[in-house]
Specification:
alpha/beta; Rossmann fold; 8 strands; about 25% helix
Length: about 160
């Protein structure tokens, strides 16, 4: 399975770029899955729902299924957060997995950058960043794409992974 990352600081445009890339790449006939790292506690379930009640009662895993989709939730309790590699083994095979976050991992990445955030480029100190998608022109050692030129970013990623 091929993986490619999208990283950047908060409000840099990562999620919007991910969304556009999924649309662009699946539109070309490739299968794509996504994996997103959250730095905070999150819940995909809601109090009062049966599956929430199962988790609250102590279930390690709860699988929720319907005609449209299924979701497997695993409670870590006091266990360590799984690594990116461990999580990738839980995905069904696809042509490409786009990973949002996990900027410290060693997979290749595109950095999303918005000048208005005032943050420095991660790419200047991270050799795993192969390109930058920015809302302003930049001088960098890596290729720089317009943050909204989804086709060019997709072309770059697909070339990088051999698709």
């Amino acid at each position: 399975m091929r993986i490619y990352g999208i990283v950047g600081y908060k409000n840099a445009g990562k999620t919007g770029l991910m969304e556009r890339l999924v649309t662009e790449i699946t539109g070309r006939g490739f299968s794509v899955s996504t994996l997103k790292h959250a730095h905070h506690s999150f819940d995909v379930d809601h109090p009062g729902k049966d599956s929430y009640r199962h988790r609250q009662a102590g279930a390690h895993q709860v699988l929720l299924s319907s005609r449209q989709r299924w979701a497997l939730m695993t409670e870590l309790r006091d266990a360590a957060e799984p690594s990116l590699g461990e999580l990738l083994t839980r995905l069904d095979p696809v042509d490409l997995v786009l990973v949002e976050g996990y900027k410290r991992d060693t997979h290749a990445k595109v950095e999303a950058h918005r000048a208005e955030t005032g943050n420095p480029l991660i790419a200047r100190s991270d050799s795993t960043i192969r390109a930058i998608a920015s809302d302003v022109p930049l001088q960098a050692d890596q290729p720089v794409f317009d943050l909204n030129d989804t086709k060019a970013v997709a072309d770059f990623i697909l070339r990088e992974v051999g698709l």
